[in-house]
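Running this now, will post back.
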Amino acid sequence: MNTKERIFNAALNLFSQKGYDSVSLREIAEEVGIRKSSIYSHYPSKEAILMDIFDYFTQQFENNPVVNIDEIELNKSNPLLEDPELFYHKGSEAIKQMVFQETNLKIWKLILIQMHHNEKIKLFFQNEILVKPLIFWNEFFTILKEKGIIREDINPKLLAKQYYSFPIYLLLEICAKYDDIPQETLDNFFRETEEHAKFLLDCVKVKK
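Update: finished.
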């Protein structure tokens, strides 16, 4: 790694462990093994490091067509909608590959810490993590209802909240419990979320 990458990684480790406000540039420099003044050759401020970390994360969302909800074609002609469990599984596998890398897990924790202190991060969390997924899943279940896959008495908006809230709860639980998240815990996360998705779908599907 070059010096900028080492600063990036050292800052991310410290920010995710202690919180952004509790870490100084001097600590970051000591972690990297350079003088504090050397940081300014790569970043003008501590906030610039934070935003570089955040931009790295958001670019992965934007560049991954399976994870980026804006890029997913959601209409009645999508053959995957005939098998909602497979649709969920493919998305789950993409998230496993992208979001649950070690670096990205640390950024998740950092986002949860900083979203009340940084307007850009707060807006990202609100829009990309909360609002857009619920709109997506509402449309998903509306289409399933129109196709006769789930029952007519089902409220797609309410089902979307029930469907999506469980993995968010598990993610918050994991980030609150662990500094270094064990692989077994991550495996259990995906197993439990897929079991939950299948359970909900079984409850609302039209019985044939």
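DSSP finds nine helices and no strands in the chain. More later if anyone needs it.
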